Amino acid sequence: MTKPTTPPGSWNAALGSDLATLEALVSCIEGNIPDSAVEWERVIALANRTLTTPCLAGALVARTDVPGDVAQFLDTIATRSRARNALMHGQLTEAVCAMNGRGIRPILLKGSGFLAQHGDTYADRLFSDLDLLVPVSAAQETAEILAGLGYRREHAYAEPLDGGNFHRGCDAGGIDLHCRLKAPFPSYGYDDLLAGSTRIALGSGHAILPSPARQAAIIILHDQLQERDYWRGSIDVRHLFDLKAIATGREAIDWAEMFALFPEGHARHALSTQLLTLTALIKVAVPIAASQDWVARLQWRRRKAQLQLTWLAPVFTALSMLLDPPLRPGGNPAGGKATRRGSIRHRLAKIAYRQFAPHAVGKL
To answer: Which entry of 74, 257, 273, 306 is 20 to 30 Å from 186 by CA?
Structure first.
C-alpha cells in the first residue's frame, strides 16, 4: 500500500511553501477554515509535501463547508490512511509479542507510540515506519527475532549500537530498530528513557511508552539535532502536531524534566527554538524560558524569513554553523570523538555537507 501523498488532476501543482499557505494549512488542520478564500490547491499541495494530508482529512472530512472535489479527495485519504494504519498496528503488535516471547520489552519511539495509543482504527496521521528501541544487550537477539518473522535487514548502520532497518514485502512500512537515539549529542539509550515510562498493551504483549516529556524530547532531538533542523531552519509540520498531541494529552508534560534532557549550548537553543515554533504556529503554551532565549527568537524569525525567501536558507545555515557550531563540550564535532589525526576536520566536513543536503521528505 503506497503513501497517500498526491491528489489527482490539476492538484499536481507547484508546491506552495510560503508562510501564508502554512498558516492556512495549520488553521485547517485545527478545524478552523480561514474566513478568507482558501487556495485549496496550495493548501493540499503543502499538506502532501509535509505529510500532513491524513491530519487535514481527519479535521475536515465531515465538514459541509469544503468544496466537493476537496471533500472527495480527503475522504479517499482518510479511508486509505485507516487501512494502512490498521496494517501497521498489526505489524507492531506482532513484532512486540515476538520480542516479549524472548523477554524483550521494546520502548516505542515517535509514531510507534501514537499508533499503540490510538489503536488500529486511527487515520489522522501518516506512519512511515515503526521505531523501536531495545537494550544494547538485546540488539542481536532482536534482529534474529525479526528475521524469524520474515524481515530482511535493509541497512546496517556504521555503528552496531545504532541498530538497523528491517523490511518485509508484505508490509506497509518497515521497522527501524534502535539501541540509542541517533542524535549525536546528547545521546540517550534504553535505560535513559525508562524514567516515568508506562506499560502499554499490544495484543497479548506489551511495550514501554516513555513519559510525555521524554516522548516530546525524542521528537525534538530527532528533528533538531539528528536531522539538523536547528541549523538548517527547517520545520517538520507533522511532528509539530505530534508535539501538540503530547502537550495537550491526559498527562501533562513535565517541562523541567524535558529541559534537563537538553544540555546548555546548541542543544538547549534547539529545544527553545522548536518550542517557540510550536507556540507561534499552533498556539500551544510552552514555558516562558523558551521565549527568553534570544538565540531561539532569532532562529524563529529566520524560519519565517526562509519560508518567504527560500534563497536565504543557505546563507542562514552558514551563519548558524559559524555562530553556534554543532560541537560537543571540548570542541569535538557532535558526530563523535576524534580518534585519528585529521578526523575532526573530516567530521566537520561531513557535518557541513549534511547541512546543505536536500531536505528530507516532509520538511519545509
So the answer is: 306
